[in-house]
Amino acid sequence: MPNFLTLYRETYPSGVLTIKTGNIRTNSLAEIYRNSPVFQNLRNPDKYKGKCGVCEFRYVCGGSRSRAYAMTGDYMESEPFCVYVPKALRKQKKNIKKGYE
After folding, report:
1. Which domain holds residue 80?
2. What element of type H or E holds 11?
3. Are 50 and 39 in a shared domain?
4. 3 Cβ partners below 8 Å, 6+ apart?
5. How far apart are CA 4 and CA 27, in angstroms?
């Protein structure tokens, strides 16, 4: 997992995902990485929301958390530019369709 460190020793997940995770003046980088709620969420794909949360590839892909944050204000939301439709959502769509036939 990348880390971005500012001149003021503040840490962020990346230069694009600008959610402060800590400051190395008060905690070590390892402590911040292990204990920051932001990093804990980013390491747990089961907490992803929307289609990323049900996608069978969430452990491999994970989508762009930075792009999700930029587009929705929530880094745990679905990757906005992903065109893939997870199997779970395709099954839901089929079941809904059957209910109307």
Report:
1. 45-101
2. strand 10-12
3. no
4. 11, 12, 13, 14, 29, 33
5. 15
pLDDT at residue 101 tops 70: no
> Can you tell me whether residue 86 is helix, strand or coil?
coil
Q: Provide mean pLDDT across the span 17-33.
A: 95
pLDDT confidence of residue 90: 86
Same domain flag for 6 and 39: yes
pTM for the model stands at 0.82
Residues facing 4 on adjacent strands: 12
- Answer yes or no: do 91 and 64 share one domain: yes
Q: How far apart are CA 89 and CA 37, in angstroms?
A: 28
Q: CA nearest 39: which of 61, 22, 62, 60? A: 22
Tens digit of each residue's pLDDT (9 = 90 or more) over 38-88: 999 999 999 999 999 999 999 999 999 999 999 999 999 999 999 999 998
Quote the number of domains for the chain. 2
